[in-house]
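Page 37, continued from 36.
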């Protein structure tokens, strides 16, 4: 652009003629240079707009990419949760906003310039929402009943839009955020995004160094096995447990080696311990469900074994030295209602600095 301006300037500075033709050439050269400057300016503005659109699209892509991690997806998840309530909120808000703007223009437009037309009134109300002003400039000039009309409008706008509906909007967002946060809190596989990025890089090295098949290959093999397997029987515990033998049968040939499969399962058990159960549980389930359908007593015993297998690692991690569980059953009758309560009791020895006595129950 500097070259074009320099060319325009020298059209005048380099003029040395005195005749009519020279002056016409000067004027023509000046307007040609000016048209070139305008053309370059429009070209630059078009590119600025195009780059702005590209940057905004990339911004939206960045926001959408946050969905790849539960913690980073809080923004998009909150918006999705609150979308229905937001739609009805903005519908109500815009109706009241437009009605108040039309009312202010109809009654006060002739005396207050901020409400001279409906469009100006809506613009003034937008400024009021952002706290620019609440008292119009020439409202002091109002007299008689117009003063009352103005303050009825102003107080209605403040109480209904500023203090009530805007707080409704904040409540909708906060309520959706709390729901998303609660959902994330119960996810056993979720962890810090920095740890996940580190684990992503480390997993790539593990897959290559230990010759594991690609994750897509493993997922496809398991998905195919699930699709080709009939739905599990809710009363058959064996159908609901994926043992090492089952995994060995559906995984690719590269994972048939027992040592490689063991290292793979051990690696994922460290990442997601809640997705794995101990071998005692699997063996008990397989033993209890051999042959015909298990009896009711066997099913109840199996349920205790399954619950104990889940509770044991959690309790031992939270309370080192805890033993159990010891199960207790209690039948409680309140009038015509009968309640059955089953408790899992864990114990641990009293140690120096510990907060539990030898007979104290740490969980019920």
């Amino acid at each position: 652009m500097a070259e074009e301006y320099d060319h325009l300037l020298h059209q005048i500075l380099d003029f040395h003629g005195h005749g009519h033709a020279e002056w016409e050439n000067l004027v023509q050269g000046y307007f040609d240079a000016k048209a070139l400057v305008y053309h370059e300016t429009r070209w630059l503005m078009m590119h600025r707009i195009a780059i702005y659109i590209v940057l905004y699209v990339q911004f939206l892509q960045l926001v959408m990419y946050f969905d790849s991690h539960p913690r980073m997806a809080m923004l998009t998840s909150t918006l999705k949760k609150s979308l229905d309530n937001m739609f009805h909120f903005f519908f109500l808000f815009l109706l009241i906003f437009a009605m108040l703007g039309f009312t202010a223009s109809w009654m006060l437009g002739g005396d207050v310039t901020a409400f001279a037309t409906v469009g100006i009134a809506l613009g003034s109300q937008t400024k009021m929402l952002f706290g620019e002003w609440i008292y119009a400039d020439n409202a002091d000039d109002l007299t008689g009943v117009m003063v009352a009309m103005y303050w009825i409008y102003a107080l209605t706008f403040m109480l209904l839009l500023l203090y009530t509906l805007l707080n409704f909007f904040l409540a909708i967002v906060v309520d959706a955020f709390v729901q998303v946060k609660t959902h994330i809190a119960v996810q056993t596989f979720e962890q810090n995004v920095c740890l996940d990025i580190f684990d992503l890089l480390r997993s790539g090295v593990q897959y290559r160094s230990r010759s594991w098949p690609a994750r897509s290959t493993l997922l496809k093999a398991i998905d195919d096995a699930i699709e080709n397997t009939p739905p599990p029987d809710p009363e058959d515990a064996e159908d609901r447990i994926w043992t090492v033998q089952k995994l060995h049968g559906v995984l690719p040939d590269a994972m048939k080696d027992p040592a490689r499969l063991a290292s793979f399962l051990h690696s994922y058990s460290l990442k997601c311990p809640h997705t794995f159960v101990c071998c005692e549980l699997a063996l008990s389930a397989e033993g209890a469900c051999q042959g015909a359908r298990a009896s009711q007593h066997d099913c109840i015993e199996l349920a205790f074994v399954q619950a104990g297998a889940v509770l044991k690692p959690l309790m031992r991690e939270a309370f080192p030295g805890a033993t159990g569980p010891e199960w207790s059953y209690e039948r409680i009758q309140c009038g015509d209602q009968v309640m059955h309560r089953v408790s899992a009791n864990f114990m641990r020895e009293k140690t120096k600095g510990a907060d539990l006595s030898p007979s104290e129950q740490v969980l019920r």
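Residues 193-318 form one domain. Flag for discussion at group meeting. Confidence is low (pLDDT under 50) at residues 279-294, 353-364.
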